[in-house]
């Protein structure tokens, strides 16, 4: 009898551990947030549609200066008067809750969030992709990109239709694997199939692709869509990653260009890229020292949409 009880006990332990492992890192089954009705109605600076994209660095497990970094990011979103914000590595932590909601409330924008990795219930942490918007976000879709890079690593794409004064624009945000190049390439193909399936005339695709512009996948992307930064800055390096020490000064070197904003399709009569500039590309003076908002540089793109 005792032996049988011990076996049942071990089976229960195995079942509990298995359930914990399966839930410790799983992709979201639905989006959360406030896609419309939460944006604060305030005067907008004149000009074309402004889209800001940033890998904001979740900072797990120490989350050093996370709230300060969130406040700096919110400050820059407001300063640039961004209409749409595409964020990667958006964390949820016990002391701050969801960063997407935090930034949405701090900037007065609607917000969407999709978990990519982790579980707030199992390990008290998760991270994913988010879209903030001055305008309503409708027809929300999302998917896990294939193939999966590892058991505990998921890569997703989150998309929605932004209903702007100039018409509808499809917006997608993603963060691809930094693992094997062939997996990254396959995920890029999965991403493109998903993003182009709706057939919208105007599609904005932003995020951390973890691939250099001479890689096969980015070369293909640049033919199917418009690499907006490279189009406007053909002779600059345009490095966006990575800041090794977030408390370092302005001389911190960057070595890679892996963050992009693409406009699809490449040839169209319904939109025109006006500008694409690096933002959050300098540290901020705080408490007598330096503080970078993230280990990545952001991109602010202005696109004139045909009314």
Topology of this protein?
Layout: H1 2-24, E1 32-34, E2 49-55, H2 66-80, E3 84-93, E4 97-98, H3 99-107, E5 110-119, E6 125-133, E7 137-144, E8 156-164, E9 167-175, H4 181-196, E10 203-208, H5 216-224, E11 226-227, H6 228-232, E12 259-264, E13 271-279, E14 284-286, E15 289-291, E16 298-305
Parallel strand pairs: 2-3, 9-10
Antiparallel strand pairs: 1-5, 2-16, 3-4, 3-6, 5-6, 7-8, 8-9, 10-12, 11-12, 13-16, 14-15
The assembly state of the depicted protein chains is: single chain
CATH fold topology: Deoxyribonuclease I, Chain A
Q: What portion of residues belong to β-strands?
A: 25-35%
Number of helices: 6
Low-confidence stretches: 11-21
- Reading the helices and strands in chain order gives HEEHEEHEEEEEHEHEHEEEEE
Tell me the distance between the termini: 78 Å
The 3D shape can be described as globular
State the CATH superfamily name: Endonuclease/exonuclease/phosphatase
Question: What is the level-2 CATH architecture name?
Answer: 4-Layer Sandwich
CATH class category: Alpha Beta
Radius of gyration: 20 Å
What helical percentage do the residues reach? 25-40%
**Class from helix and strand fractions:** alpha+beta
Tally of separate domains: 1
Let me know the average pLDDT.
92
**Number of beta-strand segments:** 16
Largest sheet: 8 strands, mixed
Q: Your description of this structure?
A:
The structure is a single chain. This protein is an alpha+beta fold. It has one domain (about 30-305): 4-Layer Sandwich (Deoxyribonuclease I, Chain A). Helices cover about 25% and strands about 35% of the residues. It is built from six helices and 16 strands. It has helices at about 1-25, 65-80, 100-105, 180-195, 215-225, 230; strands spanning about 30-35, 50-55, 85-95, 95-100, 110-120, 125-135, 135-145, 155-165, 165-175, 205-210, 225, 260-265, 270-280, 285, 290, 300-305. The strands form three sheets. Strands 1, 2, 3, 4, 5, 6, 13 and 16 form an eight-stranded mixed beta sheet that branches. Strands 7-8-9-10-12-11 form a six-stranded mixed beta sheet. The longest helix is centred in the N-terminal third of the chain and has 23 residues, at about 1-25.
């Amino acid at each position: 009898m005792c032996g049988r009880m011990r076996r049942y006990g071990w089976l229960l332990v195995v079942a509990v551990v298995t359930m914990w492992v399966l839930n410790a890192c799983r992709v979201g089954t639905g989006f959360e947030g406030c896609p419309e009705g939460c944006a604060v109605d305030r005067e907008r600076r004149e000009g074309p549609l402004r889209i800001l994209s940033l890998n904001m660095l979740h900072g797990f497990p120490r989350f050093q200066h996370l709230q300060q970094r969130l406040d700096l990011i919110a400050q820059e979103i407001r300063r640039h008067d961004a209409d749409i914000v595409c964020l990667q590595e958006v964390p949820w932590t016990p002391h701050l809750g969801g960063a997407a909601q935090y930034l949405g409330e701090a900037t007065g924008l609607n917000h969407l969030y999709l978990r990519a990795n982790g579980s707030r219930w199992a390990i008290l942490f998760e991270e994913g992709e988010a879209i903030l918007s001055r305008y309503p976000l409708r027809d929300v879709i999302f998917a896990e990109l294939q193939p999966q890079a590892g058991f505990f690593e998921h890569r997703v794409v989150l998309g929605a239709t932004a209903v702007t004064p100039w018409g509808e624009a499809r917006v997608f945000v993603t963060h691809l694997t930094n693992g094997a190049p062939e997996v990254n390439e396959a995920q890029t193909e999965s991403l493109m199939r998903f993003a182009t399936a709706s057939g919208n005339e105007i599609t904005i695709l932003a995020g951390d692709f973890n691939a250099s512009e001479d890689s096969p996948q980015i070369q293909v992307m640049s033919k199917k869509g418009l690499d907006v930064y490279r189009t406007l800055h053909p002779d600059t390096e345009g490095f966006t990653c990575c800041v090794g020490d977030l408390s370092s000064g302005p001389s911190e070197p960057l070595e890679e260009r892996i963050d992009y904003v693409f406009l699809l399709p490449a040839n169209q009569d319904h939109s025109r890229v006006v500008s694409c500039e690096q933002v959050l590309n300098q540290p901020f003076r705080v408490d007598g020292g330096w503080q970078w908002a993230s280990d990545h540089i952001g991109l602010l793109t202005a696109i004139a949409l045909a009314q």
